[in-house]
Every structure is written in C-alpha cells, then in structure tokens.
Amino acid sequence: MAEAIIRKAGELSWGPWRDSPGSRRKTLLDGMKGNPEIFLVELAPHFIAARHSHDQDESYYIVEGEMEFNGVSCPVGTSIHVPKGTVYKLETGSAAAVYLNTRPRKAHILKASSG
C-alpha cells in the first residue's frame, strides 16, 4: 500500500530557480517515482520568462505579489491552468511574485523563443 508524502514548506530550503538572479524555488515533490511535481517559485522583480511550452499540463496558484501571464494581470488568488504544448510567457513588475506550480510529473521545456 502506498504511503502519504508530507512535506512542510517552512521546513524546506529555497534553492536557485533556473539562471534567474534573485528568483528561487522550493521543491515540495520532485515529480519522480510516479509522484506529481509540486514546487513554490519566487520570481524576482522585473523577471521575464521567455515564451516557452512544456510536455505536459501544469497549474499555477499565485500566493504573493502579482505577475502577468501572456499579458494578463494575475494577482494573489489567481489560478492558471496551462495545457501541454501551450506557448506562454511570465513576467513580474516592480515587486516579486510567489506561485505554487503543479505538474503530473517532472516536466521538460518543449519550445523556447524570444519575446
């Protein structure tokens, strides 16, 4: 029988997030061994993630600050579901933003483009 996995965000360390100075990530579940991938991301002020897509669906929930998803303002309490293959861009303004990201498993970037 499978056992529950309990991870307390307050007991986990922040690590780097991609090559983004000032941004960081806290992994709650790593997306391995059949588990979903769940992590918190803190995006630095004035962060821009170039247009890209992933090989699976993913969902976001904004827990602090505000960010733009494909030009749409997303304040605290906003949820976003992104079907696999959807090309999108994330940006923050003058303040940092924190969001919870969930995926069925560890994802890979399918496409990245400028802009």
Can you walk me through this structure?
The strands form 2 sheets. This protein has a 6-stranded antiparallel sheet, with no helix packed on it. It has a single domain, classed as Jelly Rolls, CATH 2.60.120. It has no helices and 11 strands. The model has no long low-confidence stretch (mean pLDDT 91). It is an all-beta fold. Strand 2 (24-30) and strand 3 form a beta hairpin.
Summarize the helices and strands and which ones pair or pack.
Layout (H helix, E strand, L loop, with lengths): L14 E2 L7 E7 L6 E7 L4 E7 L3 E7 L1 E4 L2 E4 L3 E4 L5 E5 L4 E7 L5 E5 L2
Antiparallel strand pairs: 1-2, 2-3, 3-10, 4-9, 4-11, 5-8, 5-10, 6-7, 6-9
List keywords for this structure.
115 residues; mainly beta; Jelly Rolls; six-stranded antiparallel sheet; 0% helix; globular
Helical/strand content category: mainly beta
What is the terminal separation in angstroms?
47 Å
Outline type: globular
Order of helices and strands: EEEEEEEEEEE
Widest sheet: strand ordering: 1-2-3-10-5-8
Question: CATH first level: which class?
Answer: Mainly Beta
CATH A-level architecture: Sandwich
Are there runs of 5+ residues with pLDDT below 50, and where?
none
Say what the CATH topology is.
Answer: Jelly Rolls
Helix-residue proportion: under 10%
Rg? 14 Å
- Oligomeric form of this entry? single chain
Query: Tally of extended strands?
Result: 11
Number of domains: 1
For this structure, what is the CATH homologous superfamily?
Answer: Jelly Rolls
Largest sheet: 6 strands, antiparallel
